[in-house]
Amino acid sequence: MRLVRNVMAVIAAVWVAATAASCSNDVSVTYSENTPGDALRVQVGGEGYRDVLEYVSKAKLAGDVELELVDAPADANAHVADGRADLAFYQTQPAFLGNRETDGHGTLSIVSKVDVAPYALYSSKWKDLEPTDDWVNSNLVSDKVTGQSLPHGAEVAVPQTKAGFARSLYLLQTAGLVKLDRPFGGLTVADLSVSDANVLESQRHLAIRQLDFAEYAEDIYHNYDAVVLDPTTATSIGLVPANDALAIEPGPGNPYARVLVAASRLAGDPRVSALAHALESKEVAQYLATTYHGKFISAHVPFAP
Questions:
Q1: In CATH, which of 3.30.2350.10, 3.40.190.10, 3.50.50.60, 1.10.287.3510 is domain 40-117+256-298?
Q2: What are the boundaries of the signal sequence (predicted)?
């Protein structure tokens, strides 16, 4: 009987490890020594981080998994790596991958790509991005404006930071306004730092202006044909992405997803598997949509304004 019990225990352990590994290809399967009933200690960021976990816990989307949420310090990944915390949820995928390489935290992996704070295209002058023959800002012919769609020759203001500029170009490509030499979604340094040199075609002959939005975001919004804004800047000047954006970055496949990170010692832990599945659920996608109206969107369920 003792032999039978030992065999059954091994089979159960293997099944749990395989189930958790299915949440992410980033985690190698090992056996956790943590007690499944213990609360998971999570280093967590602010808006759009903490409240999502609180929603999952309150709604019991991860079953009886208990979470202890702690404000993430600058070195939160180190806390997870050395065992002071179990998980971290406070950073984007590129930030985590860069820090992991720089800080040597090779035991940390992404267990869930949760949500995205999407960049979006706005205009105070034009109503949509429908095909048009209208022109503006041409030195060769007079402006021709017969409708309300973003015209050819429009001046589009975008953030001047490397990441902001790259995300703006990808957004314009997703909206069908420019064509780049690569698709959206890559995580190489080259993918995350595309620039003018990567633009193969501007179907609407846009004049793209890199600007600093720190102090004059609202003035820029009113003075240019269109602007690309991060969601924090957009909401600071009264814009609601779901209502006001002409185009919004997609959630699924977005390399800038905000990620839940765990150490390899927790691979195979059913609590982590349950939490990851909950964060990727339709329920969380709906919570984000109704709570934030496009400021944060699911990385798994397409956002429909």
A1: 3.40.190.10
A2: 1-20
